[in-house]
Design brief:
The structure is a single chain. By secondary structure, this protein is of the alpha/beta class. The chain has a domain of 66 residues. It has 7 helices and 10 strands. The longest helix is centred in the C-terminal third of the chain and has 16 residues. The protein binds adenosine-5'-diphosphate.
Length: 227
């Protein structure tokens, strides 16, 4: 669960990126955060990950109160969140398998668990036949699927997808959002940040629209998406 109560965020140079933002995303929800460039979308992500402190207000993320969280608990908070970036951020000289396994090796997961879990998340994103490929041998859409598998491998409660379709062909964008929808249907909360109105209109659902640091719309919209 993610809750922002009356949150204001200001950068060191004095820019106020968010002003009195309140929103709540319950466990199991799927929500789009929609807004043009500079609206404040990335700032919300930085706050959720505790990369930035709110100047005012309160944030609760997966049971952690970010106003009072100890520094030593921040890694535990971040492990409850899987993040997918616009530019994939895969390691070029590692195979698909190793890009994903790497996350589990860092947290000292057992080799037995890694051997079981990695192929499972690779199958969730439909890339079984690319396990031994390198990122450079994959299309943008496939690379984003790897990034999604990597975000899922830790079994996070929340997936944040930051403009995940920004670097891929429009028709593949629908596939990526479709995959996020499937993941959400299996119980993971999904927050997808985008500026693409067409995509949001197609899928519908909860839309949180941000303009100049304020929530200007937060409601459910019917989409043309059929599962
Ligand atoms: P979006 O993700 O919607 O494009 P951002 O959250 O990145 O918007 O930015 C919101 C506002 O905060 C913008 O005015 C932007 O210029 C400003 N901003 C973003 N990051 C920084 C930063 N590190 N330092 C100063 N201002 C920033």
């Amino acid at each position: 669960m993610v809750e922002l109560k009356d949150v204001t965020a200001t950068y060191p140079n004095g820019v106020t990126a968010l002003r009195n933002v309140s929103l709540r995303i319950n466990d199991g929800d799927f929500a789009f955060i929609l807004g043009s460039s500079g609206a404040g979308k990335s700032t919300i992500i930085k706050l959720i990950l505790k990369e930035l402190d709110a100047a005012k207000g309160q944030l609760i993320v997966n049971g952690f109160n970010l106003s009072s969280i100890k520094k030593s608990k921040v890694p535990a908070l971040r492990r409850t969140v899987g993040v997918v970036f616009q530019d994939f951020r895969l390691i070029p000289n590692m195979t698909v398998y190793d890009n994903i396994a790497f996350v589990l090796r860092v947290i000292d997961a057992s080799p037995k668990y890694i051997r079981k879990r990695v192929p499972y998340v690779i199958s969730l994103v439909g890339l079984q036949d690319k396990t031994r490929s390198y990122p450079g041998e994959l299309s943008g859409g496939q690379q984003q699927r790897v990034a999604l598998a990597r975000a899922l491998v830790n079994d996070p409660r929340l997936i944040i997808a930051d403009e995940p379709t920004g670097n891929i062909d429009p028709e593949l964008s629908y596939e990526i959002v479709g995959l996020l929808k499937n993941i959400n249907e299996c119980g993971t909360t999904v927050l997808m940040v985008t500026h693409e109105h067409d995509l949001v209109r197609h899928f519908g659902g909860r839309i949180i629209s941000i303009e100049e640091g304020s929530v200007v719309y937060d409601d459910y919209l019917g989409g043309s998406y059929e599962n």
